[in-house]
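[step 3/7] fold_predict: job queued, chain A
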Amino acid sequence: MKMTIRNAKKSDLARIMEIYTRAQVFMRENGNPTQWSNVYPTRETVEADIEKQISYVCVDEEGLVQGVFVFIIGKDPTYAVILDGAWKNEREYGTIHRIASSGERRGVFDTAIDYCLEKIDNLRIDTHRNNLVMQHLVTRRGFAYCGIIYAEDGTERFAYQYC
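[step 4/7] structure written:
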């Protein structure tokens, strides 16, 4: 059965934080110990995402939240400068941030990407150099590597675009 996507609600907060904690552990165990460490995203960040209605959850048939991501259509300031490459185009785009899965159900990433592509056909996403799992997922879905950007905290990220 296919999962559905909906806006995250305040009542989802505990489950979302549980999913992010699992994602932090998964990243550490898979050679990516620094991207989110033990502190990102913070509860305050997640609450703000929910308040701004940019946080989405993937929900299974039983109604259990299996994944979370942030999706914003419009310019992302961290994508204004790209080094060692170039974006494929400068058309309006959607950005996917902070995507994570509970690990209990396959298909969270694909469900999220499919949802975003229903909204806009030009997507951008970035990930840490050490996040080989995410790099594999984005290239498998047809995203092209475009270059290097720097996140708000000044850390390097590999940038990808799908169009």
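[step 5/7] annotate
The radius of gyration is 15 Å.
The chain has a mean pLDDT of 93.
exit 0
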